Structures are given as structure tokens and as C-alpha cells.
Structure to design on (257 residues):
């Protein structure tokens, strides 16, 4: 498997392209899932061991590394929404998973720099701009802030301050502070947020696309380029001294126009 990726990276180099490798992109080995995956504290040294193996094999052709892709999506989609495989559902397991992913990222960051001095290491953050559905409603504005913090701020706050900050937990992870050489940003769309009495598991917040938005054919993505601008400005404010790399962006277009 590693030789296959070495061949791919070699091909990119030969064609004048700069490769970037993402080390974790949602999928886990089945044996790790059987241990309840990122809920289990042993995942951190296991992830570091895996990272060392992969980076040592690919370092000849790559010096840009994304440790983890969209950890917020991984944790919330699996452990809150239930759309991804997860041993347990709920906010507490989701917070445990996020904290361990932050610890795994920090361990990977240091391991990669130990192996490859010139490496540039970061993570790919799915940023979701949000506005209150009814700006005149204090309740909608409060729900917007709660949901925004819950979706967007756990990983970045830990890398900025050493504290994972969410609406339901604050976890000290001092080893994570400063462990990124660039900010990777993934942007697709933005949400309007309102209070919803039936959404207990989502802290009574409800997210949806703005009315009259330019929707994709399947209604999966609302095309809102202004949100991309907001995302980049957010990254510049939070990490003013870091380069920003757009690690994902796109629209869903069945006709490929």
C-alpha cells in the first residue's frame, strides 16, 4: 500500500506538482473500531506509530502533511448525528473523541518534525459560517453562538491556547498549543441557525440553509461564496501569523458545468 502511494507521489513530482498527504481522512481500521476507536486513549500512541511509519515511507516525495481531516465533522457526524460509525452516541463521547484527536494531532506534529526537519504540518478544518435565522431574536442569536462554537472552535482553540473550548466542555491539552505550521481550511457552505425545542442532542440548535439559497441538484450544498470570504477572514483573525492553505472547496454539479 505504501509503495502504491510512493508511486503516486513520484508521479505528482514528475509533473511539477507539490504533493500534500492527509494521514487520517475519516476511515479507521476495523480493529481500531472494535476498540471504540478515538474514544480509547490508546489511539494516541497508535496513531503516532502509524504516522511515523507512513511519513518515513513517503518523506522522499512529500513535505506537506495534514494530520487529520475535519476532526469536527468526524466527531459530530459520528457521535452526535450518528451518520458515521461510532461505538457510542452523545456529546460526552464526541468531546472525548475530539480531545483524543487533538492529542493525536500534537503527537503526530512532533513525530513528523522529528523525522523530517523541513516538514510543514497542519490539519484540515471544516469551517462553517453561521448566522441567526432571525437576527432580532435573542434566542436565535444565542443558539447561533452555541452551535458555532460547538462546530468550529474545539480544535482551533486547542492549537491556539492549549485548551479545547466547546459549549459543553473545556479540556486542558497544553501539548497541542502551537502545533501547526499552516491553517488548512475546508469550505463548502454556511447555515442559518435557530432555536428548536426538539433538538435536545444538539443543544436545542437547528441549522439549515438560508431561504432562497442557490441549491445544488440534490440539495446537499447551498452555493454561498460570501461564506468562503468569511471563512478566510476568520482564519486570518485567529491565526494572523500562519499561512492559510485551502485544503478543500467545491460545488456539487451533476452536469459538470
Amino acid at each position: 500500500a505504501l509503495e502504491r502511494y510512493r508511486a503516486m507521489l513520484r508521479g505528482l513530482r514528475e509533473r511539477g506538482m507539490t504533493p500534500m498527504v492527509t494521514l487520517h481522512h475519516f476511515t479507521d481500521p476495523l480493529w481500531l473500531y472494535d476498540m471504540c476507536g478515538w474514544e480509547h486513549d490508546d489511539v494516541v500512541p497508535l496513531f503516532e506509530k502509524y504516522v511515523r511509519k507512513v511519513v518515513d515511507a513517503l518523506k522522499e516525495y512529500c513535505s506537506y502533511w495534514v494530520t487529520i481531516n475535519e476532526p469536527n465533522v468526524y466527531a459530530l457526524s459520528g457521535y452526535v448525528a450518528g451518520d458515521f460509525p461510532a461505538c457510542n452516541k452523545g456529546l460526552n463521547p464526541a468531546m472525548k473523541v475530539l480531545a483524543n484527536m487533538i492529542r493525536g494531532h500534537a503527537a503526530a506534529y512532533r513525530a513528523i518534525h522529528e523525522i523530517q526537519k523541513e516538514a510543514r504540518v497542519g490539519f484540515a478544518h471544516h469551517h462553517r459560517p453561521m448566522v441567526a435565522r432571525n437576527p432580532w431574536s435573542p434566542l436565535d442569536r444565542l443558539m447561533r453562538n452555541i452551535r458555532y462554537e460547538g462546530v468550529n472552535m474545539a480544535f482551533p482553540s486547542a492549537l491556539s491556547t492549549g485548551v479545547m473550548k466547546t459549549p459543553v466542555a473545556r479540556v486542558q491539552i497544553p501539548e497541542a498549543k502551537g502545533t501547526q505550521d499552516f491553517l488548512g481550511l475546508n469550505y463548502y457552505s454556511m447555515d442559518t441557525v435557530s432555536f428548536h425545542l426538539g433538538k435536545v442532542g444538539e443543544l436545542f440548535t437547528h441549522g439549515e440553509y438560508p431561504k432562497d439559497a442557490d441549491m445544488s441538484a440534490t440539495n446537499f450544498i447551498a452555493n454561498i461564496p460570501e461564506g468562503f470570504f468569511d471563512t478566510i477572514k476568520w482564519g486570518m483573525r485567529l491565526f494572523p501569523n500562519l499561512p492559510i492553505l485551502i485544503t478543500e472547496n467545491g460545488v456539487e454539479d451533476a452536469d459538470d458545468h
User: Anything to note?
Assistant: The longest strand covers residues 120-126.
